Amino acid sequence: MYKIQTLNKISSIGLNNFPRDDYEVATDINNPDAILVRSADMHGMELSASTKAIARAGAGTNNIPSAELAEKGVVVFNTPGANSNAVKELVILALLLSSRPVVAANKWVNTELAGKGDEIAALAEKGKSKFVGPELKGKTLGVIGLGAIGAQVANTAIALGMNVIGYDPFLSVKAALSLDHNVKIVETLDGIYTKADYITVHVPQTDETKGMINASTIKVMKDGVRIINLARGGLVNNADILAALESGKVAAHVTDFADEDLMKNDKVICMPHLGASTPEAEDNCAIMAVKELRDFLETGIIVNSVNFPRVTVDSAIPAGGTRLCISHKNVPGMIAKFTTILGDLNLNVEGIVDQSRGDIAYALIDVAGKVGDDTLKTLEECEAVINVRPIFA
Question: pLDDT tens, 299-313?
Fold first, then answer.
């Protein structure tokens, strides 16, 4: 029986994919095998030694100390692409809101025209000229980051009649194949900044990307540029963008990360991190997170981890055999050590796969027959081994 702890409310559509006979799922649970989380801050949280994996029902994992957990052999998963359609739709809305001052117009109608009765229609016609804004068609959209979300945004913008340029130094083959052929890829960020009428950012927040939209980068942008940030709040330097809004360099800014100073500016539309706030996205993220945990716990394979390598195998665990899941430091000679130990005990190895990611490596070794506790202990005591988990067929 596997024990799963949930730190936030997780979609029941996803949780129903845990077989009831094999899994216990609850918020209050002792010694969980794995944890499902959405936004709960796990920095500083003490985990039970039984915890083998954490799945974030969403793409970002800033709320999880992934690097620290890798050193302890705890695999952290995320769910890239599961909420991409929800975020894409909100980005398209943000583009429209940055162009057409609908929010301000609605506020004006509700405040200035309230109580005017039969005069409302005439007053509305007279006052509507205050809320003129440009169309998207024919304008140039710069998309920074062409992953699951950025690619969908680019394709939808093409369908809306926009010219789209994209930048992504790590563009995957899968993402490239998904892009509309009319999307033009540029080699530098300046290729976006100098040409785009609208810019939308879809990259993770790292040391390299934090504050990437700042006074220096804004300076090279077109006058009147409109900037959308529904990715991570720290990607935009708020003080710099407020100064650019004041000067008119930036015409509008739409962000999914509310901030006291931004909220005071009429040219900024702040939302409360709504990107993935649709029932469909929550269901999709939960379904993917549950599958990742089940695959890992039941077969040892790792897909969509942010701190461990991707490791998959096509074959099932040998009948009556054992699959050894070994987390270890990425140093030479580890596989030789493992096979020597198993060979000395007359245990036949039927398959090995070992992959690394930075300083961390992970091996799946299929062995004919059941591996006993003494053998597991010997493997665990090998220098540079982090942990060993057996899965018995």
Answer: 999 999 999 999 999
